[in-house]
Amino acid sequence: MRVIETITKRLSSYLEDKRILEVACGDSEFSINALKYAKQILATDISLERAKRRNLIDIVENIEFKEMNATKLELENDSFDVSVCYNALGHLEGILNSVISEMSRVTTQNGYLIFIATWKMDQKVLLGIENIISKHGNLTISENIDNKSYNILIIKKE
User: Fold this and answer.
1) Where do transmembrane segments lie in this chain (predicted)?
2) Per-residue pLDDT tens for 112-151?
3) Which of 19, 99, 120, 126 is most buried (most C-beta within 10 Å)?
4) Are 116 and 92 in contact (CB under 8 A)?
5) CATH code of the domain occupying 3-157
6) Residue 48 near residue 23 (C-beta atoms within 8 A)
7) Is the dihedral of CA 8, 9, 12, 13 positive or negative?
8) pTM, whole model, 2 decimals?
9) DSSP assignments along 11-65, one per residue
């Protein structure tokens, strides 16, 4: 079983029949694997070139793709049950506070923000997220999964 399949299976209770936003989706590996569980997925990135190269746009049912800046999501408040950032933390490090604020804004109350890192550069950034979360009064760390192949930080929006 591939690591992404293991991760989505481990997160299935958070994803099952939920509306999911993936921020900085890249080639949408997470979204494609989360389809087994999710009700609906919106995969966003500043550029969808990687998803286009995989010929995913307009052919994958239940995933909508939109180009969007993660610090200014063009989405309604409380639109998603779960917001996910998979293997993009290293690219977002300098703007992470704004990204977390936006992910929180579009996530419903009692929903979750999930940060997943399988790459070393992302795992290093993941360690610093706890400091950012402490500045947001409505966010609390729900679970911190440390595995030899991946790290997952699950944050609840209260």
Assistant:
1) none
2) 999 999 999 999 999 889 888 988 889 999 999 999 999 9
3) 99
4) no
5) 3.40.50.150
6) no
7) negative
8) 0.94
9) THHHHTT-EEEEES-TT-HHHHHHTTT-SEEEEEES--HHHHHTT-TTTSTTEEE
